[in-house]
Design goal:
With about 190 residues, the chain is mainly α. Helix 6 runs antiparallel to helix 7. The structure holds fe (ii) ion (FE2) (2 copies). The site of one fe (ii) ion (FE2) has 7 residues, from helix 4, helix 6 and helix 7.
Length: about 190
């Protein structure tokens, strides 16, 4: 006779008992928080996070360059928006670098290979509208990339996923900010009406 699904579920404990948890935690201390319940592929997670780190660093550089060089009438508000975004991208870069370190990797800040690892691009944009447009494009790339990564990590690495959830929320705000600025400076809505 085979067990009904509910019998199997009833016989498999949902939580590990405290004694086993304590014993397991005492073994393999050198792996830090990559314990036996880590379901992801650590090497792959680190590699993915290196690309997220590069993406964030490129965003810091692009926004900083734009914040300094944006010129023209009504550029002050835009400049301060660029500067604010640069600061937030830097906070993301630090969060991601910390996570790589927690997983036993070394965060890659090597400028020589930055653009090959980054999903976003370093585009100067030219005039004020060109800059806003390039930042909007970069934010849309980040949003698409991070949404996919969040689905990929799922329950295999909840801490990495939750970190990316938080970053995604800010990237969506950035996208919205850039979209609003583009509308304000081009005078027409970019979204199709519902
Ligand atoms: Fe970011
Ligand atoms: Fe952003």
């Amino acid at each position: 006779m085979t067990n009904a699904p509910q019998d199997v579920a009833a016989s498999t404990p949902f939580l590990t008992d405290v004694k086993t948890l304590r014993e397991r935690a005492r073994k393999n201390l050198e792996t830090g928080n990559v314990t036996s319940t880590y379901r992801g592929d650590v090497a792959q997670t680190i590699e993915i996070l290196q690309s997220v780190l590069a993406t964030e660093i490129v965003c810091v550089l692009r926004y900083t360059m734009h914040a300094v060089t944006a010129a023209g009438i009504s550029s002050e508000g835009v400049k301060s928006e660029f500067a604010q975004h640069a600061k937030e991208e830097q906070a993301h870069a630090l969060e991601v670098a910390e996570r790589i370190n927690q997983l036993g990797g070394t965060p890659d800040f090597n400028p020589a290979t930055l653009l090959t690892r980054s999903a976003s691009q370093y585009e100067e944009g030219g005039n004020l509208v060109g800059m806003i447009r390039e930042n909007l494009i970069a934010e849309r790339i980040a949003v698409d990339h991070y949404r996919e990564l969040i689905r990929y990590f799922g329950d295999n690495d909840p801490a990495t996923r939750i970190m990316l959830d938080g970053i995604l929320v800010v990237e969506e705000e950035h996208t919205n900010d850039m979209h609003d600025l583009l509308v304000a400076h081009e005078g027409k809505p970019s979204f199709a009406s519902p």
